[in-house]
Design a protein that fits this description.
One of its GO terms (molecular function) is hydrolase activity. It is an enzyme of class 1 (oxidoreductase). Its EC number is 1.14.99.56. By secondary structure, this protein is mainly β. The chain has one domain: Coagulation Factor XIII, Chain A, domain 1, CATH 2.70.50. It is built from two helices and eleven strands. The strands form three sheets. The protein has a five-stranded mixed beta sheet. Strands 2-1-4-9 form a four-stranded antiparallel beta sheet, with no helix packed on it. β7 and β8 form a beta hairpin. The longest helix is centred in the first third of the chain and has 18 residues. The radius of gyration is 19 Å and the shape is globular. The structure holds 2-acetamido-2-deoxy-beta-D-glucopyranose and copper (II) ion (CU). The site of copper (II) ion (CU) has 4 residues, from loops.
Length: 235
Amino acid sequence: MFPTKSLALLVGLSTLLAQVNAHYTFPTLVVNGQTTAAWSAVRKTNNFNSRAPVTDVKSADFRCYTSETRATASTVTVAAGSTLGINSDGTIYHPGSLNVYMAKATNGDASTFTGDGAVWFKVHEVGAVTDGGTSINWPSYNAVGTSFTIPKSLPSGQYLVRIEHIALHSASSFAGAQFYISCGQINVTGGGSGNPGPLVSIPGVYTGNEPGILINIYWPIPTTYVQPGPAVWRG
Ligand SMILES: *[C@@H]1O[C@H](CO)[C@@H](O)[C@H](O)[C@H]1NC(C)=O
Ligand SMILES: [Cu+2]
């Protein structure tokens, strides 16, 4: 039998653990409706256990979050014009926005490509729904993941595909936004002759002072939300 006090402590502790476990990673891709095994097509991130976010937008880990694991993955083939999903290990537990960037492997091999330089373009974003200051809603909040169409005109070849979910619940001070990041490896087939852009470097794309990153989402209720990063390339 537990004395009441230890029981209360246990309940408190398990609530705390539940909160910690409720952070998230993005270990799977969804290709042709099939979900890949965790960390098979996505490079295993440093936080695969802790699920802790990146908060320094200038750090090397802001790109693929693999400085400790040094992980690469197997590259999965995806047809241009088809839907690619990126899923979390549970649900996206925090309110915030998300972006997906891609970079073509300039060495022709996604499994060894580092993603250095201004090679990244945005292919997808999910922001906020605002109504002039009465409410703000985050469509990615509590979602399992996200999905988007690989533009049909994207040139065939191997790419890194990087998701960032920007948790904004404590983003009202500098470096308070929490980035949940991972990079998958895909081989795009049947593509076209599009010219993706604008191209940015990651890290480098953000300073941390953007109005969509340094923001109090609770009060006053934002009247608009400015999605950080370049415009989405739609092919
Ligand atoms: C990528 O797709 C091309 C065309 O189908 C194929 O020849 C190549 O082996 C694939 N590469 C990888 C790494 O899957
Ligand atoms: Cu969290």
